[in-house]
């Protein structure tokens, strides 16, 4: 049977021809006495145009007719359109429901068996495919074949649907105006979002590898931003482990010299008899063991940056030579006979109080003022405890990824210990402690903290009210400071919640919990 359907599809090209072909195929196969296609016209179910093929053996084609019996026709179409499969009716059922009102068939009472198959195009019922037999029931094979034929007719109806009328010039102009109004509306919304994101990106300040939403670190980040395009000499002050080298690298990476090298040297780690050679280089044979010429750090850093860590450890004679470099912009190798011009930005750092060193005569006053053009003081970790969770999370992710392990976080007890501990070694101590815990832990969450023996006394009361109160007081002071900075505003792009990196609802809850005055909100 499928081959017969394909023959029809290729052989006939119009609805009338298709119906004639259908009838010519159906009649010898199933003794079909009448076949018809009824189409709804102008979306009006009460007016239909029908193409009819009837006369059992002659296959005569009768021209199109109009059905204008609203009551009878609408009752037929309503019933058929509710089905997705053939609707069968006997002559008795037909006469009981519709009588002689169906004008497609002149004498419907003469046909004993009626079959109606809905025709669907563009997701709506377009009409019906009808078969009427005088005395032979419809076999299942005949019904299946008729359903296939109805699918073919439905496809043709879809193809024959008229294209929508083209809009007039006035309609096009009206549509364009509406679209322009919509575009203008979206543009204004986009401008608002862009302004919001610009303000949001301005604060808080963030730098790679440096976590810090605390007020103290935000001040440091602001200083870094203000000097981003300058070539100023910088002095970084802070305790051991506060991240002075990270700050120096951040300064270099956002400076005009970022494409040139940054050379670092720890002045305290190099023996006194070698530090001059490390800094300025030496010529071959200039001293015992100088088997070849050596380029010093200042020459290596030419057009770039040199980072002098622990600069306060330089001997007085080296302080004089460093002062000359700052003043004359030139160096001289050990054993050399001429000076070498150098273009270097100097960033120095120390964990000592240089004011005290100057007063004690251990550091030259003139060198101090040459180095102290733009000082940046880094706070110890104990003075910015609110940064501890972010720092701990950063180190945990780094070391767990490095070790190929999945550790999700810290227990509340461990976090309380970290918040209460005094951290004499600052961020570096926190980093090393978490690296050690990642190696030791066998659980998905770190539940123990291996505080060094010397620091356990600092944690003896970490669960007592006194220590917890201290942490809460630190948090309270920090929230108050941020609220004052934001003029008491909690939410919004300029609000304290955004600066603190927490939801406004959380901040309001903390304000209530910490007993802050309503006027701060």
From TrEMBL:
<feature type="domain" description="Sigma-54 factor interaction">
    <location>
        <begin position="210"/>
        <end position="439"/>
    </location>
</feature>
<dbReference type="GO" id="GO:0006355">
    <property type="term" value="P:regulation of DNA-templated transcription"/>
</dbReference>
<keyword id="KW-0175">Coiled coil</keyword>
<dbReference type="InterPro" id="IPR009057">
    <property type="entry name" value="Homeodomain-like_sf"/>
</dbReference>
<feature type="coiled-coil region">
    <location>
        <begin position="169"/>
        <end position="196"/>
    </location>
</feature>
<dbReference type="InterPro" id="IPR058031">
    <property type="entry name" value="AAA_lid_NorR"/>
</dbReference>
<keyword id="KW-0238">DNA-binding</keyword>
<dbReference type="InterPro" id="IPR025944">
    <property type="entry name" value="Sigma_54_int_dom_CS"/>
</dbReference>
<dbReference type="InterPro" id="IPR002197">
    <property type="entry name" value="HTH_Fis"/>
</dbReference>
<dbReference type="GO" id="GO:0043565">
    <property type="term" value="F:sequence-specific DNA binding"/>
</dbReference>
<dbReference type="InterPro" id="IPR027417">
    <property type="entry name" value="P-loop_NTPase"/>
</dbReference>
<keyword id="KW-0805">Transcription regulation</keyword>
<dbReference type="Pfam" id="PF02954">
    <property type="entry name" value="HTH_8"/>
</dbReference>
<dbReference type="Pfam" id="PF25601">
    <property type="entry name" value="AAA_lid_14"/>
</dbReference>
<dbReference type="InterPro" id="IPR003593">
    <property type="entry name" value="AAA+_ATPase"/>
</dbReference>
<keyword id="KW-0067">ATP-binding</keyword>
<dbReference type="InterPro" id="IPR002078">
    <property type="entry name" value="Sigma_54_int"/>
</dbReference>
<protein>
    <submittedName>
        <fullName>DNA-binding transcriptional response regulator, NtrC family, contains REC, AAA-type ATPase, and a Fis-type DNA-binding domains</fullName>
    </submittedName>
</protein>
<dbReference type="InterPro" id="IPR025662">
    <property type="entry name" value="Sigma_54_int_dom_ATP-bd_1"/>
</dbReference>
<keyword id="KW-0804">Transcription</keyword>
<dbReference type="Pfam" id="PF00158">
    <property type="entry name" value="Sigma54_activat"/>
</dbReference>
<dbReference type="GO" id="GO:0005524">
    <property type="term" value="F:ATP binding"/>
</dbReference>
<keyword id="KW-0547">Nucleotide-binding</keyword>
């Amino acid at each position: 049977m499928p081959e017969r359907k394909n023959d029809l599809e290729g052989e006939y090209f119009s609805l009338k021809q298709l119906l004639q072909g259908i009838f010519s195929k159906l009649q010898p196969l199933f003794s079909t006495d009448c076949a018809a296609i009824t189409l709804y016209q102008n979306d009006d179910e009460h007016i239909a145009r029908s193409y009819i093929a009837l006369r059992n053996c002659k296959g005569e084609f009768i021209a199109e007719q109009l059905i204008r019996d609203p009551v009878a026709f609408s009752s037929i179409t309503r019933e058929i359109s509710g089905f997705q499969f053939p609707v069968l009716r006997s002559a008795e059922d037909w006469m009981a429901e519709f009588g002689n009102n169906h004008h497609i068939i002149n004498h419907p009472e003469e046909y004993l068996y009626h079959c109606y198959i809905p025709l669907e195009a563009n997701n709506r019922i377009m009409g019906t495919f009808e078969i009427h037999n005088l005395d032979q029931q419809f076999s299942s094979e005949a019904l299946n074949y008729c359903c296939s034929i109805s699918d073919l007719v439905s496809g043709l109806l879809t193809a024959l649907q008229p294209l929508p009328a083209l809009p007039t010039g006035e309609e096009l102009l009206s549509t364009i105006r509406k679209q322009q109004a919509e575009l203008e509306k979206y543009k204004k919304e986009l401008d608002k979002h862009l302004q919001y994101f610009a303000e949001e990106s301005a604060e808080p300040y963030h730098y790679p590898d440096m976590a810090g939403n605390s007020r103290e670190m935000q001040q440091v980040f602001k200083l870094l931003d203000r000097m981003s395009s300058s070539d100023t000499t910088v002095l970084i002050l802070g305790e051991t482990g506060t991240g002075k080298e990270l700050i120096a690298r951040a300064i270099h990476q956002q400076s005009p010299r970022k494409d040139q090298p940054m050379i670092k040297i720890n002045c305290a780690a190099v023996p006194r008899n070698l530090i001059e050679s490390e800094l300025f280089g030496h010529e071959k044979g200039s001293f015992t063991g100088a088997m070849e010429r050596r380029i010093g750090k200042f020459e290596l850093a030419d057009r770039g940056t040199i980072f002098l860590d622990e600069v306060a450890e330089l001997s007085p004679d080296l302080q004089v030579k460093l002062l000359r470099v700052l003043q004359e912009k030139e160096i001289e190798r050990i054993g050399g006979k001429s000076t070498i011009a150098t273009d270097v930005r100097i960033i120095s750092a120390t964990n000592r109080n240089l004011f005290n060193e100057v007063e004690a005569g251990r550091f030259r006053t003139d060198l101090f003022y040459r180095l102290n053009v733009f000082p940046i003081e880094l706070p110890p970790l104990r003075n910015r405890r609110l940064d501890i969770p972010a720092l701990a999370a950063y180190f945990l992710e780094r070391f767990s990824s490095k070790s190929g392990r999945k550790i999700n976080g810290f227990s509340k007890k461990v976090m309380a210990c970290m918040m209460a501990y005094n951290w004499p070694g600052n961020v570096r101590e926190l980093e090393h402690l978490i690296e050690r815990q990642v190696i030791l832990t066998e659980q998905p969450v770190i539940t123990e903290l291996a505080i060094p023996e010397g620091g356990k006394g600092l944690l003896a009361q970490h669960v007592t009210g006194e220590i917890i109160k201290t942490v809460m007081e630190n948090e309270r002071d920090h929230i108050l400071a941020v609220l004052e900075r934001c003029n008491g505003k909690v939410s919004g792009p300029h609000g304290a919640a955004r600066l603190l990196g927490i939801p406004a609802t959380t901040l309001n809850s903390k304000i209530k919990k910490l007993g802050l005055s309503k006027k701060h909100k």
